[in-house]
Amino acid sequence: MRKSRFNESQRQAILDSHLKGHKTVEQICEEHQISPATFYKWKNEVETERNDDKRRLKELETENLRLKKMYAELQLKHEVMSEAVDILKKMQAQRKRRT
Question: What single DSSP character describes residue 45?
Fold first, then answer.
């Protein structure tokens, strides 16, 4: 992911200029050469950080995603191991029949 050319305090200053009603979103985006999507993304991040419930929900969603990925990996490993055990049992059964 590309690093932003704006640090946190610069982002906050840009957002504050809109919140104070000095400039429109279009004017701010044109002045700082950012897209409206970037502006609204920054705005959403700041609002999420300020709201404890939203921040906690975001943390839980991130943790849930991590756990789902971990579960999926473990399930795949289990399936592979189960198939390997089945193949091994079949091979042992064939050896017993030959002897």
Answer: H
